[in-house]
C-alpha cells in the first residue's frame, strides 16, 4: 500500500462515495473532437445575449484599478443595492462564488453527518452532492410525471428532516409549484428544518403569468429559510461566478459568513454584478427572447412527437423515447450540445437550453434529421 493509498483509505466514506458533477462538454472540446466550425452549446442554460454592455464597462474600470488588492469580503456595494431592491436589512444577504458555493456553505453550516435532507428527483446535481459531502442522507422524492409531487414531499418530511431543498422552477424539468402547492408544502415542514429554496431561474419564471411569489410565501411561513438567486442565468455572468442568498433571519447569514471563505467573491464579479443589476432592460430583453424562443422550440419538439414538460425557465426537458445519451451523441456530431439526464429513472430524458435563434435552429434541424432517419428505420449506430 502506498502512502496515497493509506491516505485515501482513511477518508470518510461520504467523500469516497460522492458522485462527480456532470458539467457537460465545452464548445471548444466538441469543435475539436468532431472537426466542426459551428457549435450550438445548449447544455448549461447560459444567456445567449451574454452580459449587459454596462458589465463590459464596469469590468474595464475595475481592471484599470488593478487586481492586486483583495476584494471587499462583505460585497458592500452590491449588498446595499440588493438590500434596497428587496427592501430588507442587508445583513440577511449572503454572497457566494456562484449560488453553487452557497449550496456548499449551507450544507457545511446547517447539516451534520447522518442528518436527513429531502429533495426531488430529477434535480440539480449539487442539491444532492453538497449534502452528501458532509455526510447527510438525501431522500429524493420522484416527481409525478413531470410535475412536483407535493403529497409525496409532505410524506417524506419528518422530524428527522433537517433541510428541504427545492429548485422552483425545477432544474431540469422547468415546471413550478403554484402558490397553493407551495403553501401546502411549507405547512408540512417541521419546525427547525431549513427550507432551501433555489430560484436560479427567477427572472425567467417571474415573467410567466401566475408564477408564485416564493419570497412572500416563504416570509409568511414563519419557518427558517434561505432563498438562492444567481447572476449566472438571466444576467449572463456565469463565467464570473456570483450568486446570493436571502435568509429569513440575519442569524442564519451570520453563521454562513463564518463558514464561507472570506474572499469568496472576486472583485471583478462584484463590480460586474452591480452593473448587471442596474440594467433591467437587458434582463427584460433576455427574458422576452427566451419566452418566444421557448415556445418555438416547444412547437418544433411537439411536431417531432416529443412531449416537452411545461417550463417557465430557459430550457426544455423531454423524454427522448430512447437512451438520452444516444440521442445526445448524434446531436453532438452535428455540433449541438444538449444535456442527457443521468439520474436513475430519467436516463431517457434530455434537457435543452433556449439559446440564440441560430443555435435553436441548429438544434431543431439536427433533431429533425436524426428523428427522420429513426423513422426510416436505420439503426442508431449508423446515424
Ligand atoms: C445554474 C443553477 C445554479 C448555479 O448557479 P451558479 O450561480 O452559477 O452557481 C444553482 N441552482 C440551480 C437550480 C441552477 O440551475
Automatic annotation (TrEMBL):
GO terms for molecular function: histidinol-phosphate transaminase activity; pyridoxal phosphate binding. Residues 39-367 form the Aminotransferase class I/classII large domain. Belongs to the class-II pyridoxal-phosphate-dependent aminotransferase family. Histidinol-phosphate aminotransferase subfamily. HAMAP family: HisC_aminotrans_2. This is Histidinol-phosphate aminotransferase. GO terms for biological process: L-histidine biosynthetic process. Its cofactor is pyridoxal 5'-phosphate. NCBIfam families: hisC. Its EC number is 2.6.1.9. CDD domains: AAT_like. Pfam families: Aminotran_1_2. It catalyses: L-histidinol phosphate + 2-oxoglutarate = 3-(imidazol-4-yl)-2-oxopropyl phosphate + L-glutamate. Pathway: Amino-acid biosynthesis; L-histidine biosynthesis; L-histidine from 5-phospho-alpha-D-ribose 1-diphosphate: step 7/9. The modification N6-(pyridoxal phosphate)lysine is found at residue 233. Keywords: Amino-acid biosynthesis, Aminotransferase, Histidine biosynthesis, Pyridoxal phosphate, Transferase. It comes from Paraburkholderia monticola. It is an enzyme of class 2 (transferase). Homodimer.
Amino acid at each position: 500500500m502506498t502512502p496515497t493509498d493509506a491516505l485515501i483509505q482513511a477518508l470518510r466514506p461520504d467523500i469516497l462515495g460522492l458522485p462527480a458533477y456532470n458539467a457537460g462538454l465545452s464548445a471548444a472540446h466538441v469543435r475539436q473532437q468532431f472537426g466542426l466550425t459551428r457549435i450550438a452549446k445548449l447544455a448549461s442554460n447560459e444567456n445567449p445575449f451574454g452580459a449587459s454592455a454596462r458589465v463590459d464597462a464596469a469590468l474595464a474600470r475595475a481592471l484599470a484599478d488593478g487586481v492586486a488588492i483583495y476584494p471587499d469580503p462583505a460585497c458592500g456595494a452590491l449588498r446595499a443595492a440588493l438590500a434596497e431592491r428587496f427592501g430588507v436589512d442587508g445583513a440577511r444577504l449572503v454572497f457566494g462564488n456562484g449560488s453553487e458555493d452557497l449550496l456548499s456553505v449551507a450544507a457545511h453550516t446547517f447539516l451534520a453527518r447522518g442528518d436527513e435532507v429531502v429533495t426531488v428527483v430529477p434535480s440539480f446535481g449539487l442539491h444532492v452532492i453538497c449534502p452528501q459531502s458532509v455526510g447527510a442522507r438525501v431522500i429524493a422524492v420522484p416527481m409525478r410525471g413531470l410535475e412536483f409531487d407535493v403529497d409525496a414531499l409532505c410524506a417524506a418530511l419528518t422530524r428527522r428532516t433537517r433541510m428541504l431543498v427545492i429548485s422552483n422552477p425545477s432544474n431540469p424539468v422547468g415546471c413550478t409549484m403554484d402558490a397553493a402547492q407551495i403553501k401546502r408544502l411549507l405547512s408540512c415542514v417541521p419546525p427547525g428544518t431549513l427550507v432551501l429554496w433555489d430560484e436560479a431561474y427567477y427572472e425567467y419564471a417571474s415573467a410567466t403569468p401566475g408564477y408564485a411569489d416564493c419570497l412572500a410565501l416563504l416570509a409568511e411561513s414563519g419557518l427558517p429559510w434561505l432563498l438562492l438567486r444567481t447572476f449566472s442565468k438571466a444576467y449572463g455572468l456565469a463565467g464570473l461566478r456570483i450568486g446570493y442568498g436571502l435568509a429569513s433571519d440575519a442569524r442564519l447569514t451570520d453563521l454562513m459568513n463564518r463558514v464561507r471563505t472570506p474572499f469568496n467573491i472576486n472583485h471583478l464579479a462584484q463590480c460586474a454584478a452591480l452593473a448587471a443589476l442596474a440594467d433591467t432592460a437587458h434582463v427584460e430583453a433576455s427574458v422576452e427572447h427566451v419566452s418566444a424562443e421557448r415556445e418555438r422550440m416547444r412547437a418544433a419538439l411537439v411536431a417531432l412527437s416529443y412531449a416537452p414538460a411545461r417550463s417557465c425557465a430557459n430550457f426544455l426537458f423531454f423524454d427522448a423515447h430512447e437512451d438520452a445519451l444516444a440521442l445526445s451523441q448524434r446531436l453532438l456530431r452535428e455540433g449541438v450540445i444538449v444535456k442527457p439526464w443521468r439520474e436513475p429513472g430519467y436516463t431517457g430524458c434530455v434537457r435543452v437550453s433556449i439559446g440564440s435563434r441560430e443555435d435553436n435552429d441548429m438544434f431543431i434541424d439536427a433533431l429533425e434529421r436524426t428523428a427522420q432517419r429513426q423513422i426510416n428505420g436505420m439503426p442508431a449506430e449508423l446515424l
